[in-house]
Amino acid sequence: MLIIDSKDCENIDKALKKYKKKFEKAKILLQLRERQSFTKPSVKRRGEVLKAVYKQQIASGKLEA
């Protein structure tokens, strides 16, 4: 749960802005999307390896983005 400290004289827009920043920093939306479906650890690992291979190919110039 996110708690925003707001002063009595503070504008509601400023409080909303603070809330949005805290919300993005906490990565709550990413966690929700991640938990919607279960992915096996082996599938996760395979995705990470493929991403690393792709990045290496771009860095070496074999593949153009």
TrEMBL record:
<dbReference type="GO" id="GO:0003735">
    <property type="term" value="F:structural constituent of ribosome"/>
</dbReference>
<comment type="similarity">
    <text>Belongs to the bacterial ribosomal protein bS21 family.</text>
</comment>
<dbReference type="GO" id="GO:0005840">
    <property type="term" value="C:ribosome"/>
</dbReference>
<dbReference type="Pfam" id="PF01165">
    <property type="entry name" value="Ribosomal_S21"/>
</dbReference>
<keyword id="KW-0689">Ribosomal protein</keyword>
<protein>
    <recommendedName>
        <fullName>Small ribosomal subunit protein bS21</fullName>
    </recommendedName>
</protein>
<keyword id="KW-0175">Coiled coil</keyword>
<feature type="coiled-coil region">
    <location>
        <begin position="9"/>
        <end position="36"/>
    </location>
</feature>
<dbReference type="GO" id="GO:0006412">
    <property type="term" value="P:translation"/>
</dbReference>
<dbReference type="GO" id="GO:1990904">
    <property type="term" value="C:ribonucleoprotein complex"/>
</dbReference>
<dbReference type="InterPro" id="IPR038380">
    <property type="entry name" value="Ribosomal_bS21_sf"/>
</dbReference>
<keyword id="KW-0687">Ribonucleoprotein</keyword>
<dbReference type="InterPro" id="IPR001911">
    <property type="entry name" value="Ribosomal_bS21"/>
</dbReference>
